Amino acid sequence: xxxxxxxxxxxCEALTRPDxxxxxxxxxxxxxxxxxxxxxxxTLHRLHPSFPGCFLHRSAPSDVARTENLTxxxxxxxxxxxxxxxxxxxxxxxxxxxELFRGCMRGRTLYxxxxxxGPPDSPLGRVGVEITDSPYVVLSMxxxxxxxxxxxxxxxxxxxxxxxxxxxxxxxxxxxFILHFPEDRLIWSYGSGYGxxxxxxxxxxxxxxxxxxxxxxxxxxxxxxxxxxEAPGGDRIYIAGAFPSACGKTSLAxxxxxxEAQGLRVRTLGDDIVWMRVxxxxxxxxxxxxxxxxxVAPGTSRKTNPNALITARAxxxxxxxxxxxxxxxxxxxxxxxxxxxxxxxxxRPWDGRGPAAHPNAxxxxxxxxxxxxxxAYDDPRGVPISAILFGGRRHQxxxxxxxxxxxxxxxxxxxxxxxxTTAAATAETNVLRRDPxxxxxxxxxxxGDYFRxxxxxxxxxxxxxxxxxxxxxxxxxxGRWLWPGYGENVRVLIWILERIRGRxxxxxxxxxxxxxxxxxxxxxxxxxxxxxxxxxxxxPAEWRAETPGxxxxxxxxxxxxxxxxxxxxxxLESRLASG
Length: 579
Ligand code: SAT
Ligand code: MN
Hints:
binds manganese (II) ion; binds sulfoacetic acid; globular; Phosphoenolpyruvate Carboxykinase, domain 3; alpha/beta; Phosphoenolpyruvate Carboxykinase, domain 1; single chain
């Protein structure tokens, strides 16, 4: 073991004063022992035998989602965090939150969790080590990452690791801080046991810290799904897609194609994070650094995402779902009626009022159990990307799909995307907010520099992916969904594939290339022509109403915003004026 690792563990032990220190090896025996202890103390609950190896966890009611207002970038210069992040002075952060950590593990076990992000032997793979006092976090990290010996082996050959210190503390939102020290590649998280706040390999390392590593080393860490599209004849392309939390990344990545009989099939590589580098061949290569899925349960059904249900049928954790008296998980939108005697997400008999499952209830499931997992998932080189999708929840204005004119315009499209907020973060939901590249809560540095980094990457790509914007959420004036979504989204992917091949027709509009109504493969889908036209409609007047919000957002980013993006905005405005 590396001496710097031992030294850091010793320091954390001296600070937090645990009763015991346990080094996790990631073995089945270790997981079984932790599970037994948590069943004993009520941290976990058994589920029905038809869910082998699955357990229910109920979090503290005030600890059910990421807390963006308590998440900080502690760069030395506040300007390096930029106007879209919360900033705290690193010395102040160490002093203030160091006080909270002091002695906080008395009576508890300190777990040392070494983990690897990325497939073993991948040049892009990185080691992290999380210290935590939460056995729920240990079991979750065991699903979400390659945890234990495999990470220590990697550390052996290359001593670098990203340290993350985590304590659930008192689970008090007033004593909760998620801190990132980008210069020290260090994470401190105190006071939450939930998902992205506590599984430090995920958003904290693989996005916030990794985005800084990527900036410094010339690669990208992105909030994206990763999927394979197989075309008739066996041709395969790989697509990465950025969507904000709880906007359907998992169901798109696991899509079951209604056109499988025609040879059109989707396979899954990842549902949340990709790391991408410029290959020697001038293409963009991507991999999923995670080993599991932390998916939103509500809305997941046999119809919307059968592969997720199968993936999470064994060896999985369920957090804040409702449950029948005999231990069958239940949530809103699961596709069957609530069983009698249902217990809500807090374990109380459900009175039928309000949601039974928390809207941000989750399953934590191993990727290797996914029936649609791509054989390329574990490839240490990653996969070459042919298309990048940006998307969000837009009820109006934004068509089903459009293609950017080129990479720079595509960066503009990603930089200006917006979405209605969801229950994945504790804040007001269903309000429209700008969420560039779905990275607003996850970029570890100044957003203006981040856009510049995207533009720089594009200049190094001799075969850049095409960039598209998709929107499954458009509504008519009565608030009805215009597009069926889920499996039928494959029809949009087919158009994208055909654009890559230079075959599909498109109409040029002020915002980009939009499918002509007859260029979408809609066979077998009952869609009236006026509905289709409405889905694809680009109304210059509606778009003219969009641009002041973009301008305001660009002004907020300030003088680090690349001039090229201002030019893109002005060019869009002039196209709209004459449109
Ligand atoms: O809680 S997580 O941040 O891991 C999930 C999400 O919001 O995307
Ligand atoms: Mn996410």
